[in-house]
Amino acid sequence: MIYIGSCLCGDVSFEVKGEIENLYLCHCKYCQKDTGSAYASNLFSTKAKLIWQTGENKVKTYQLPSTQHVKSFCSNCGSAVPSMQMNNELVVVPAGCLNQDIAIKPTAHIYKSSEAVWAKNLDKVKSYEQLPE
Q: Are 43 and 92 in contact (CB under 8 A)?
């Protein structure tokens, strides 16, 4: 399988070739901080290969000291982009940076004990197809 993605401004683009093993929805406080949201949605693979198409020189990576938390992002627009982790043995791809729909369903919610209080029972919140007027 080949997955194609990019950042918001398009300066960084990439391919991920191979099998994606897991899609985790991480509720840890670190992921809440670096996404500004309730959780991060990341694809994980020890088998796939990350190939930068454009803009690899614009990718910045931040490792939170004394943790395994890593975030890579476009230095121009700030969008999350893939990273190589665990001594380059693990490809981590933010699901939202892919340019295509994926058939992979979430494997699990992780760090649920850190779930944001405001994010509980979201299925009961009113929904709109676009910005409400």
A: yes
